Amino acid sequence: PGYKTSTENVGVFSSMYIVYAISRLTRTYIYVGLTSNLQNRIERHNKGYERTTKPYAPFKVIYTKKFPTRPEERSHEKHMKSGSGKEKLRQIRDNSAGLSTDR
């Protein structure tokens, strides 16, 4: 509900704030971040310019959600980094890859 798994309609320069999640292509690592320039931010992750994610590149975007204000964006980012938020992201990632989420 309300989750987008595409970067469609996200411009290079956006006045909106964006919470995003990326997943490593070959392992189960998920990173959640926030930005106002998604395209640039993803390029930085994939080129190894971000210290936190450098060892895990390359990535694909699995989730984006726009917010009109920074406080709303920050609150949602914190939620998506929580246990329940990460579980939702794992389900999104696994469903987009055609993997079963049954355990």
Description:
The protein is an alpha+beta fold and about 100 residues long. The protein is built from three helices and three strands. The chain has helices at about 40-45, 70-80, 85-95; strands at about 15-25, 30-35, 60-65. Strands 2-1-3 form a three-stranded antiparallel sheet, with helices on both faces. Strand 1 and strand 2 form a beta hairpin. The chain is globular, with a radius of gyration of 13 Å. The two termini are about 20 Å apart. The relative contact order is 0.23.
Offer a quick outline of the entry:
The protein is α+β, with helices and mostly antiparallel strands and 103 residues long.
Q: Give the fraction of residues assigned to helices.
A: 25-40%
Helix/strand class:
alpha+beta
Q: Please provide the ordered H/E string of secondary-structure elements.
A: EEHEHH
Instruction: Give the spatial strand order of the biggest sheet.
Output: 2-1-3
Strand content: 15-25%
Write the layout of secondary structure elements.
Layout: E1 17-24, E2 30-35, H1 38-46, E3 59-67, H2 70-81, H3 83-96
Antiparallel strand pairs: 1-2, 1-3
Offer a few descriptive terms.
103 residues
